[in-house]
Amino acid sequence: MIRVLQVIGSLGYAGVENVVMNYYRHIDREKVQFDFVTCSEKPERYDEEIRSLGGVIYRLPSRNRHPFSYMRKLYKLIKQQHYEVVHIQQNSASMAMDAFVCKLLKVKTIIGHSHNTSCNVLWQHYLFKPFVNLFVTHRLACSEEAGRWVFGSKRDVTVIKNAIDASRYYFNGQTRENYRKQFGLQDKFLVGFVGRLEEQKNLIRCIEIFAEVLKSQSNAFLLLVGDGSMRSAVEQKIKDLGISESCRLLGRRDDIPDLMQMMDVFLLPSLYEGLPMVVVEAQASGLPCVLSTAVPAPNITGHVVHLSLDEANDKWMSSIISFLPFERRNMREEFIISGYEIETAAGILEKTYLESMEKCDE
Predict the structure, then answer these.
(1) Has this prediction a pTM greater than 0.90?
(2) CB–CB of 7/35 below 8 Å?
(3) How far is it, in rounded angstroms, from Cα 14 to Cα 45?
(4) Which terminal residue of the chain has fewer beta carbons within 10 Å of its beta carbon, N or C?
């Protein structure tokens, strides 16, 4: 059995963590086992599940605040535990820091995995970009755009789809009815957002777009699922526009598949993305999606609309209400064909690990 060290910022609610955990649950753990490096000092969402699946969690100092201490302790960890495969999950070329440590230790397989097309600390990304390809042995990305962002256009990058357990999301009319009744939203046209309440997600624009929808459809209602540093700003914007009675912030939730059942349209006007898993999940639930062109999501169901952020809010509104009425249905067949079903995708990642070790042993 191969033990793969997954280097990841945290084990909380963000998209990258969800992607890695989806693969962990469905990979053949008799052949491949995951251990994790995280920079969080406190227990997190997936800690208990990781341990139940046989994984080990190592907590290191903050990579951003204490980079030298982080690298020193990462070096010590990999050396002591003799990891031969290290999988670095990052949004920028700063993964070169981790890869450099692995290179020093002559780790056989050093996988850099890009999950985005921009980041919050751009200077750091551009500082490390000339070096990242010197240290990694394998380049993975959630999309071609994410691959170019970190590794450049002249490097071979393998795209590993952000696959999901789609069966958890397939449309269920009874669940839809029950949840809408539970929230008292039976007669509403529900526009939904799921994600971190951070600048990247362009939430102020999201609220402004919804305000236009509400002018056209008096029964419109906005559901925001998630939490983050912009929560107060989001609440203030809703208050300033006088639409508090038509919006609800649900915070972090563990019942995302059920919440998606009661929505009517999924809205994501992000400033940048890699390939957001939440859009794949929304499509699995049969939701039509209205996204910015900065969201490089696949159109698996044929019900995805991309709009430029330069377009006026009324144009976004028109796209959203164009799905009135819309008949939801089960998307199982489309997902099996697309390759975004986790069983198939986990096999591809497992093969990547095993073949990388075989080549090293030749």
Answers:
(1) no
(2) no
(3) 10
(4) C
Place of tokens 């139940």: 52
Tokens 């007669």, located at residue: 187
- Region of 226 (left: φ > 0; alpha: ψ -120 to 50; beta: rest) is left
- SS3 (DSSP) at 294: coil
Model pLDDT for residues 245-255, shown as the tens digit of each residue: 999 999 999 89
C-alpha distances out from residue 277 to 8, 65, 72, Å: 17, 28, 33
The identity of residue 81, as a single letter, is Q
Longest dimension (CA), the chain: 67
Residues 100-150 have pLDDT tens digits of: 999 999 999 999 999 888 887 888 999 999 999 999 999 999 888 899 999
Q: Look up residue 105 and give its two tokens.
A: 């230790």
Q: In sequence order, what DSSP letters do the residues of 40-95 get, joined into one string?
A: -SS--TTHHHHHHTT--EEE---TTTSHHHHHHHHHHHHHHHT-SEEEEEESSGGG
